[in-house]
Amino acid sequence: MALDRSAIRPPIAMLAELTHRCPLSCPYCSNPVELTRINSELDTETWQSVFKQAGELGVLQLHLSGGEPASRRDLETLVTSARDAGLYTNLITSGIGLTERRLKALDEAGLDHIQLSLQGTDAPMADQIGGYKGGFDRKMKVAEWIADIGFPLTLNAVLHRRNLHQLPRALEMAVEMGARRIEVATVQFHGWALKNRDTLMPTREQAREADRIVSEARAALKGTLVIDYVPADYHSDFPKRCMGGWGTTGLNVAPDGKVLPCHAAETIPHLQFDNVRDKSLSDIWYYNSAFQAYRGTDWMSEPCQSCERKTVDFGGCRCQAMAIVGDASATDPVCIKSPHHGALQAQADAHASVADAPLVYREAPGKESEPAE
Amino acid sequence: MELDAIPYLPRGVRLHFDKVRDTWVLLAPERAITLDQVGQAILSELDGTRSFGQITDDLAAKYNAPKDQIVQDSAGFLKALRDRRFLEVQ
């Protein structure tokens, strides 16, 4: 069947995972469990071509991410090329690997915005979660340099059962750092986080408390700090509008050039992905079967198909339906209308009540099976 | 917005002509806002020196429209931008 390209809008945002390498090993890393090795990463020229194609396709927002994007030595060059392609450039970083000199070079390259991750509000918590001693102190130094240069800053606080009590302090830190915006992101259970549900799942009480703190802080800090909030997914009654709707708003390019509708899409085994090494970004966006798979609402079954919210949340997260229900076209089990909702809530409470489960850290890409360079 | 306030776009917020969609947009952290004619006209006048009153005077003259109408049409839009910290005032 020929596809009607005119029914598909161009994407607004692209997440470029420049590398899976990272000095940290956060147990909730959103990278796939199967990590891309350094020798499979796209080279500078290919990324530059991808950015140019993205601009021509209609992408406005480019998120440079990883792994840790600062692990790429050509980051400054890539930012220059992205700006030349007309893209708004956002660097998503832990700060580790950035020096004052590199930040100045990124400033000259035209970097628009920095999003700095926060693993905890003090060194003991942050360094334990990140699995990197000295990481917190270094990050605080990087935050000073960011402020000195004047980069617009978003603080990205990733929260879970072990550190949700630090949310009030995270909000204070964002204000102190001069951030205009904070993302209060409760861990979403994909990738490595799925292995860590026993130790990271918030309790229902923590989730409600976070709702209250965010709501009060939004009122108190209006005009000073914008708070974007990702609530505890498993404890919600309606699913998240994942990716703004599959294949409608954004796309993700993995370090090896594979183009995905979302960063976790490889967990859906029957999907076939294309690579920017073989096809144009435009061809992939409009015609790749993985992008087509859950676009719009035709693929939905009940209870989604007759639901008044079907174009509000598009049935929630496909990868979560796959992971929990075993069927990527099922209603996200977070939804109160899903027959699996009760089981998911019970499962969440069970995970949240496990005492002393160890953190399973993310591994480094290809470390065990490959000799060092 | 007070008429003597001097609004400006802070670093990290900029106007961009979107060739693919043939429209002006305001680019900001995690946001791309499609601008209508009034929005684009006001934001493209912000220079960090002229007040909101002066800018709306100039627009009234340029488009031969009542100043009150322009102030009214843009007030809600500018307030929403300010609340999201996409617009600052000196």
UniProtKB/TrEMBL annotation, chain A:
<dbReference type="GO" id="GO:0005506">
    <property type="term" value="F:iron ion binding"/>
</dbReference>
<dbReference type="InterPro" id="IPR013785">
    <property type="entry name" value="Aldolase_TIM"/>
</dbReference>
<keyword id="KW-0560">Oxidoreductase</keyword>
<dbReference type="GO" id="GO:0018189">
    <property type="term" value="P:pyrroloquinoline quinone biosynthetic process"/>
</dbReference>
<dbReference type="Pfam" id="PF04055">
    <property type="entry name" value="Radical_SAM"/>
</dbReference>
<feature type="domain" description="Radical SAM core">
    <location>
        <begin position="8"/>
        <end position="225"/>
    </location>
</feature>
<dbReference type="InterPro" id="IPR017200">
    <property type="entry name" value="PqqE-like"/>
</dbReference>
<comment type="function">
    <text>Catalyzes the cross-linking of a glutamate residue and a tyrosine residue in the PqqA protein as part of the biosynthesis of pyrroloquinoline quinone (PQQ).</text>
</comment>
<comment type="subunit">
    <text>Interacts with PqqD. The interaction is necessary for activity of PqqE.</text>
</comment>
<dbReference type="GO" id="GO:1904047">
    <property type="term" value="F:S-adenosyl-L-methionine binding"/>
</dbReference>
<protein>
    <recommendedName>
        <fullName>PqqA peptide cyclase</fullName>
        <ecNumber>1.21.98.4</ecNumber>
    </recommendedName>
</protein>
<feature type="binding site">
    <location>
        <position position="26"/>
    </location>
    <ligand>
        <name>[4Fe-4S] cluster</name>
    </ligand>
</feature>
<dbReference type="GO" id="GO:0009975">
    <property type="term" value="F:cyclase activity"/>
</dbReference>
<keyword id="KW-0408">Iron</keyword>
<dbReference type="InterPro" id="IPR023885">
    <property type="entry name" value="4Fe4S-binding_SPASM_dom"/>
</dbReference>
<keyword id="KW-0411">Iron-sulfur</keyword>
<keyword id="KW-0949">S-adenosyl-L-methionine</keyword>
<dbReference type="InterPro" id="IPR050377">
    <property type="entry name" value="Radical_SAM_PqqE_MftC-like"/>
</dbReference>
<keyword id="KW-0004">4Fe-4S</keyword>
<dbReference type="GO" id="GO:0016491">
    <property type="term" value="F:oxidoreductase activity"/>
</dbReference>
<dbReference type="InterPro" id="IPR007197">
    <property type="entry name" value="rSAM"/>
</dbReference>
<feature type="binding site">
    <location>
        <position position="29"/>
    </location>
    <ligand>
        <name>[4Fe-4S] cluster</name>
    </ligand>
</feature>
UniProtKB/TrEMBL annotation, chain B:
<dbReference type="GO" id="GO:0018189">
    <property type="term" value="P:pyrroloquinoline quinone biosynthetic process"/>
</dbReference>
<dbReference type="InterPro" id="IPR008792">
    <property type="entry name" value="PQQD"/>
</dbReference>
<dbReference type="GO" id="GO:0048038">
    <property type="term" value="F:quinone binding"/>
</dbReference>
<dbReference type="InterPro" id="IPR041881">
    <property type="entry name" value="PqqD_sf"/>
</dbReference>
<dbReference type="InterPro" id="IPR022479">
    <property type="entry name" value="PqqD_bac"/>
</dbReference>
<comment type="similarity">
    <text>Belongs to the PqqD family.</text>
</comment>
<protein>
    <recommendedName>
        <fullName>PqqA binding protein</fullName>
    </recommendedName>
</protein>
<comment type="subunit">
    <text>Monomer. Interacts with PqqE.</text>
</comment>
<dbReference type="Pfam" id="PF05402">
    <property type="entry name" value="PqqD"/>
</dbReference>
<comment type="pathway">
    <text>Cofactor biosynthesis; pyrroloquinoline quinone biosynthesis.</text>
</comment>
<keyword id="KW-0884">PQQ biosynthesis</keyword>
<comment type="function">
    <text>Functions as a PqqA binding protein and presents PqqA to PqqE, in the pyrroloquinoline quinone (PQQ) biosynthetic pathway.</text>
</comment>
